[in-house]
User: Fold this.
Amino acid sequence: MRIVLMGPPGAGKGTLAERLVREFGFTHLSSGDIFRAERDGGSELGGKLAGYMDAGRLVPDEIVVEMMAKAVTGAAEGMMLDGFPRTVAQAEALDAQLAKVGKPLDAVVVMTVETDVIVGRICGRRACPACGRLYHVSFMPPRREGYCDDCADAKLILRSDDTEEVVRRRLEAYYGQTEPVIGYYRGRRSVKMIDVNGNGEAAEVAAKVIEALRSVSPEGLEGRERGDQA
Assistant:
């Protein structure tokens, strides 16, 4: 099964994605992780990405498609996309790529969360500069305030794209450019749309999504789980 996980920054997509990977064995392709790795790697493309990401702007379609094309093709079976596609043009490019390998998209999970909740979630995040582990000052604090549990001498930082100003710009970009993608998928009868309220507890949200995905292709998902356990 191939699914797309959609929702604004801070909706809880990362937490939900981890649960779905454990439950079904999906290959998780997070555009944010891929972009940050490229940006931090110091390449020419990474420098271009930094300019867009640090300003809270969406990365141009041609750069996104170039970066995601190889990953999508290599994981066309049991794939979960997180953060891609973000525009209708990217969605069309994804459809074309999956059509080439005969593995069309099965479902789109759409998460909705109130803006103030999102700002609180993202601005409270802290990251370890050494290992990349994420914490939250309220929901998931480290054992020792301000320092990573795994890297004792690493002081946690507020990432440049996690400030309130950048977060609100990212939300504006999302609602202006990404929500039309949801409309694009709603117009396709072959794709199952799964709408979920992300304001609730993470476990409750995950349970609803898992139940909905089982109704899409229970045989395919069960086969995937058995294969992982064999």
The longest helix spans residues 164-186. Residues 114-158 form one domain. The chain has two domains: 2-112+168-222, 114-158. The longest strand covers residues 107-112.
